[in-house]
Design a protein that fits this description.
Blueprint (H helix, E strand, L loop, with lengths): L1 E9 L2 H26 L9 H14 L8 H23 L17 E5 L3 E4 L7 E6 L3 E6 L8 E10 L5 E9 L18 E6 L5 E3 L3 E3 L5 H15 L6 H35 L2 E6 L2 H6 L4 H7 L1 H15 L2 E6 L22 E3 L6 E3 H16 L16 E2 L20
Helix pairs in contact: 1-3, 2-3, 4-5, 5-8
């Protein structure tokens, strides 16, 4: 399993200058890799391997590139080709995409050291801090909010400067699956220890057993963001006051992002601790954001991030997490399977064929549960009737330990 630990960093002023310098040189290298690729013949585009082989030549021709560690430079080349692959995949799915753009200084904010070029010293200095050495840069102090697990292997280290001006260091870790709890046998799953989840409109989620979780209230945060953005619009672009206010706007955005992430951490931890199997809709998030409607609320929901957290915690807690086909879960009757079209404002499901009635989102969640069983190759147990459920608030998830809050950089235990 691959995952990451992220720490707040506190470089000295001299080291911060070197970090800034290396960020800019890596940005120039990224742009040169892009230029070299774009200006190559259409029938002879260089691969990642080809451009890695060009690095020694480029370092001799442009000595500024020689300041970079070899593995970090290769990671920058890999970054361009990864972005290129993502763009190609989107194009294959029918999205209207352009070309990769040249990176401006304000857009390129991170550098990765892959496999080598870094050292970690967790014993140096105060117990609350550790130090990371980046080759050709120096030692960087980080807040040691949690130790790297003994059974984990550090695959890569990334330093990043956020739009707020803060520095962070992330460790890409790899752990043998044998170190995690074993998941329950698939044959032992039934409707009593499994749950289907509908990512809803009126509620954040609705479960197949009748629990609902409200949307996170972010109105106060967005009002503050609007105030700070209005202040920014009155500043002269490029001035010191503009830069100072730009950071204030970035801090508000960061607060919103962290609040959503913390909410999702609590909710997903509750789900994987409560159930042996969690079935969720396989949604086309990018397509949904392009549709007419309240895209901001859809983005605040961060459903893809929610599903990613579920997948990641499935291994941590020994839970099955399965994505099921989302199309038609609202229309299809969970009892008899007959489809009935419903406008968005109709919140109750009433089947004209079998007479089954329940909440619209509860019906969808039940369908997700049944489709999830099918994804695992299990038939829906005949002795498990579909029942009308009454929605109740899922307050249990709020009691999940918040020790993983992103500001502390810790994982849920």
């Amino acid at each position: 399993m691959e995952y990451s630990h992220r720490y707040r960093a506190y470089p000295t002023s001299k080291v911060a200058e070197r970090l800034e310098h290396h960020l800019d040189v890596h940005r120039q290298l990224y742009n040169h890799v892009r230029w070299d690729y774009t200006n190559s013949p259409e029938d002879d585009k260089p691969s990642e391997y080809d451009q890695n082989n060009k690095l020694p030549q480029w370092k001799r021709k442009w000595t500024v590139f020689a300041e970079l560690h070899s593995k970090a430079a290769q990671a920058t080349v890999a970054r361009f080709h990864h972005n290129l692959t993502v763009l190609s995949e989107l194009k294959e799915k029918g999205y209207n995409v352009g070309r990769l753009k040249r990176q401006a200084p304000s857009e390129y904010r991170s550098v990765t050291y892959n496999q080598s070029g870094f050292d970690l010293d967790e014993k140096r200095g105060h117990d609350k801090y550790a130090y990371v050495r980046f080759s050709k840069i120096g030692w960087v102090k980080i807040r040691s909010s949690r130790s790297i697990p003994d059974h984990a292997t550090i695959k890569e280290v990334t330093f990043k400067k956020e739009t707020t001006g803060e520095w962070f260091v992330s460790f890409g870790l790899e752990t043998d699956d044998a170190d995690f709890p074993e998941k329950p046998d698939v044959d032992s799953l039934d409707a009593s220890n499994s749950v289907g989840i509908d990512l809803g409109i009126q509620n954040y989620i609705h479960t197949s057993d009748g629990k609902t979780v409200d949307w996170l209230d972010l109105e106060d945060e967005y009002e503050r963001l609007r105030r700070e953005q209005r202040k920014l619009s009155r500043k002269e672009k490029g001035s010191n006051n503009y830069e100072k206010q730009r950071r204030e706007v970035a801090k508000v955005k960061r607060h919103i992002k962290r609040k959503v992430l913390d909410y999702q951490h609590k909710l997903t931890t509750w789900l994987v601790k409560t159930y042996d199997a969690v079935f969720v809709e396989d949604l086309n998030i990018a397509g949904m954001l392009q549709e007419d409607g309240n895209a901001r609320n859809k983005q605040d929901a961060a459903w893809r991030q929610f599903i990613t957290l579920l997948d990641y915690k499935a291994d941590l807690y020994g839970t099955h997490v399965v994505e099921a086909e989302a199309r038609g879960t609202t229309k299809e009757c969970a009892s008899c399977g007959v489809e009935t079209a419903k406008p968005i404002w109709v919140r109750e499901h009433s089947c004209p064929s079998c007479g089954f009635e329940t909440d619209r989102d509860a019906n969808a969640a039940m369908n997700v549960l049944k489709r999830g069983f099918a994804e695992l190759g299990l038939g829906w147990p005949e002795d498990t009737p579909v029942k009308t459920v009454t929605a109740t608030d899922a307050d249990d998830f709020r009691e999940v330990s918040a020790s993983h809050v992103i500001e502390t950089g810790t994982l849920p235990s």
